[in-house]
Amino acid sequence: MTTGVPNSRSGSIRLPGSGLIISRLGLGFAHAHLLDAATRHALVHRALDLGITHFDTARFYSDGLSEESLGKALAGKRSSVTITSKFGLLPTPLIASMGPAAMPARKVRSLLNKLHLVPYPRRSYAPEVMRRALQASLRALNTDYLDIYHVHEPLSDSAISDDLITELQKAKAAGSIRAVGVSGLAGNIDAVIARYGGAIDVIQSSESGWQGRSWVPDITHSLFADAARTAPGGVLPGDSVRRLLTDALGRRPEGAVVVQTSNTARLAELVEFATG
């Protein structure tokens, strides 16, 4: 497992609630299905070259392809990285098994969802679903433990039971996960944190929306996506990207930001902004 002490030169930080040491920038892997295998592999290895050692995935992402791809790319490097995965949003097993046909199937699923014919995403936070998802994630990632395991986007605390929290604590005690987390929109996870905060080691939310709440996220995401919604043409200029990233890291000196890009040059630029 990853050990050591925070090193500002390499851009690492110790998360206060869990004691985990992760890189201040993490690489999100939500859209693995949009990249070919060679590009996915190259992206992960470029991240490692740049000092990014924290990787964020979920069982839901790309219907399992995200975890599988990340597991292959990180082969032989497990002891030098940290991995977050999540459960609760359910992948579609049929699409996951379709290979090259998965992309058009995802488009059909999206259309059916827009027409309100097929609800998507589906959710389940039942303890038995968590146990199965955890084992599937461990197999796909080719590891025997996850550094952080998040409850993925619960809509309220009513979705989570005391039995689920007990099962997560059992998995932590068994060494299958190092830290229990919750990841979601700030307004949705407020009640979860209020009710189960004592059992939650890591909080992850979008960068927008958490300010002024009773908690501070350990990790944020969607920094640029949120800002781009109000930018002319939906495109952020380089100086805005730099400012957004440095401000986000400055607001939480003991926190990290997960970024997402398929462009290795942009990834290098973000590392320069974060460490420069």
UniProtKB/TrEMBL annotation:
NADP-dependent oxidoreductase domain residues: 25-184
Superkingdom of source: Bacteria
Gene3D superfamilies: NADP-dependent oxidoreductase domain
InterPro entries registered for this protein in UniProt: AKR2_Oxidoreductase, NAD(P)_OxRdtase_dom_sf, NADP_OxRdtase_dom
Pfam family of the protein (one): Aldo_ket_red
Record-linked PANTHER family: D-THREO-ALDOSE 1-DEHYDROGENASE (PTHR43312), NADP-DEPENDENT OXIDOREDUCTASE DOMAIN-CONTAINING PROTEIN (PTHR43312:SF1)
Name of the protein this chain belongs to: NADP-dependent oxidoreductase domain-containing protein
